[in-house]
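We emphasize that the prediction below concerns an isolated chain of 471 residues; any contacts that depend on oligomerization or on bound cofactors are therefore not represented. The input was used exactly as deposited, without trimming of termini.
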Amino acid sequence: MSLGSAAVFAVLFYLWGQELFPRAAGRWGGTFPFVGAVALTLAVALFLTEWFGFAGREVRKVRLAARDFIFLCSLALLLFFAAKAVIDLLAEVPAVGRGVPTRVYAYLIPIPAFAMLVRVLINSETSILFTVAASVLSAAAASGRWPALLFLLLSGTAGAARARRVPDRYRMLMAGVQTAPVCAIAAATLEYSFHGGGGVLWAGIFGCVNGLLSGPIALAVMPVAEYAFGYASDIRLMELAGTGHPLLSRLMMETPGTFHHSVVVGTLAEAGAHAIGANPVLCRVAALYHDIGKLGKAQYFSENQAGTANIHDGMTPGLSRAVILSHVKEGVRIAGEYRLGDRITEIIAQHHGTSLLYCFLDKARPMILDRKASEEMFRYPGPKPKTREAAIIMLADAAEAAVRSLGHPSPQEVDETVTSIIDRIYLDGQLNECDLTLRDLHAVGRAVSQVLAAVSHGRVDYPEAGKGAAG
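Result of the prediction step, given as a token string:
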């Protein structure tokens, strides 16, 4: 923390004295009854600001937007006050508090659920940072006891570790079930180590209950977080993948060629994601929506021009350029209108990066030579892919279009075409802002080539007499 932040934090802690240290309460506590709660909130907010601000600047895979920061701070504050409620209120309930040491209630603080939620909605690195920050704050609510802090760190990490891929609600519940034994063992051993055997049974029970409830709690909070902050969990993505979604229905009916292209790109992207350990669900679903900006202008895109003349033959290169480039911006607008979530919207914006429109660039060569146009005018506006999933979809999209133009290619031709497309995109600098390595590129290219070779295989020509038979 900076010196100024530390000084403000010290003042707020002094005002908060009435909450933790009654003897240290300042004179303001008697004058303003709510000063403790206000100072408490400000102190916690300041701590989270410094913690997540530093992480966002210095940790490579933690790039927190304002939305992420607000979400994490809201969760941490909610968990903090939930911890105070668990410690203070349950001890006052006669039916619950009889014979149960007050300290044992700390094992009910639901940090595994919140850590799982952050892992599912953001990423693993952020969930660990959140677990550390929330554990420190919640342990403070439990009067700063070491067993509580160690339990919160361990159980939060266990919950986050078991929420790696959660494509449906059953998996989320199972993640909670798998977390329960870890929480129970951690609570029992910590209680025995620090306080002897008096509260071990209750500690184990409360730890187990905490783990079992983490799945349902995360499922209850997740829709609220998705709606309020624009996130899209894998569970939400699976719902968006259904062809009954109104936007996919429109895509099927109004732009059937684009829909077929998107389905193939989704299959390629999913295979590429599996090859390098990226998120296959996000790749497949985002690919289904990556070209929704073509709705309303289907006739301007080659996959929808079967049996008709190419409308661009009668247009200037500049006008063709404007129409084609606009589908990215329009796709982002439609994604916001249908609330597809930021992960899909970002991929729609990034799936062409700042690549060139090579077809119309060749037509515009005379204009460029006469200095009436420039090559940069025929580039997409970007941004370049920021994630591995966005990069995979860019590669799959370009590879599918290139191979489709070959007609009936052999497997060797498919492999050569995919390799040339990947090399061109890499040398153009389109992958400079994502975490794909050369090894990843090779693995993605191999997976895409295998799927495209299978999709593009030729069929046996049936004799006239046999046409119409099964096969």
